[in-house]
Amino acid sequence: MPLFSQVQGKAENPTLVFLHGFLGNFNDWTETISYLKENYYCISLDLPGHGHSVPTSPPLQGGFEYCHRLIRSALDDLQIKQYTFIGYSLGGRIALDYARTQNDSDLKGLVLESCHTGLSNQADKDQRYKHDLNWAKRFATQSVVESLYEWYEQDVFSDLSCQEKDVVINKRSHNYGVCLANMLLATSLTKQTDALPFLQSNSLQNNPLPIYYCFGEKDKKFKNLADKLSTQTNIKVTEFNGVGHNIHQQNPLQYAQFIRQHIAK
Q1: In Å, how far are 22, 51, 220, 255 from 29, measured between CA atoms?
Q2: Which of 232, 234, 255, 236 is nearest to 244 (CA)?
Q3: CA distance 8 to 26
Q4: pTM, whole model, 2 decimals?
């Protein structure tokens, strides 16, 4: 079954392809796209196991490649020739791995928001897999709401108030736990190849793929990762003031302005 897509704007404008994070769906980009659709052709996809793409279930092995094929198929169906990925968290990881592996000449840039570039240490991978397996079991066996309340207690969401967490949890409560568990394991960070060598190699190309990395001021985990990227690659790293992990939802106007500034109209 193909991925669900929503299209806004005129096809003759530059194309932006939006990939949401874990637990999200195409609607997460609504406000951001409202500021962009006059100048860009905006395509927001539901990733496997999410939103209207719940019936698409990636295999536990080869999950990234499965997502890549579905994304490319969705773009082919829409007759997209050139595009830029805008990816948040899981969506950013999938977009980055797509750029690393697919050699797609149609891909003209990446905007990565609060996205991990991959683990290189086996001990870190083993620890992370235990973490992901634990969460997958919770999502598969508990009520979605119970799992969500536990999920948003993680440090990466510490900038959110109790009221803000309640709003997000209510929005996410329509997900299906088993589908989430499957996607979480299929696209676990442990199964993502470390992209740092690719990013360093891209920096040395005569015509490097433009890559922009965004993180929130309050997101200490990804601030540390961004610092590493800024010293080891030529990625354009930008810190957004006053926000945490999810920039485009906390300040959609500022995020849209960033895209307009860096992606040619």
Answers
A1: 14, 13, 24, 11
A2: 255
A3: 12
A4: 0.97
The encoded tokens of residue 114 equal 């609060």
- Residues 194-224 have pLDDT tens digits of 999 999 999 888 889 999 999 999 999 999 9
Alpha-carbon torsion 171, 177, 179, 183, what sign?
Answer: positive
CA atoms within 13 A on the CB side of 263: 29
CATH number of the 5-120+190-262 domain: 3.40.50.1820
Q: Which two tokens stand for residue 192?
A: 């993502």
pLDDT band of residue 193 (cuts 50, 70, 90) is very high
Inter-CA distances, 80 with 33, 70, 214, Å: 18, 14, 25
Would you state the pLDDT for residue 22?
Answer: 98
DSSP 68-101: HHHHHHHHHHTT--SEEEEEETHHHHHHHHHHHH
Residue 264 has pLDDT above 90, yes or no: no
Dist. CA 2–CA 37, nearest whole Å: 24
Three-state helix/strand/coil letters over 148-180:
HHHHCCCHHHCCCCHHHHHHHHHHHCCCCHHHH
Rounded to a whole number of angstroms, the distance between the first and last alpha carbons of the chain is 33
Residues 247 and 31: beta-carbon distance below 8 Å: no
Neighbours of 76 (CB within 10 A): 12
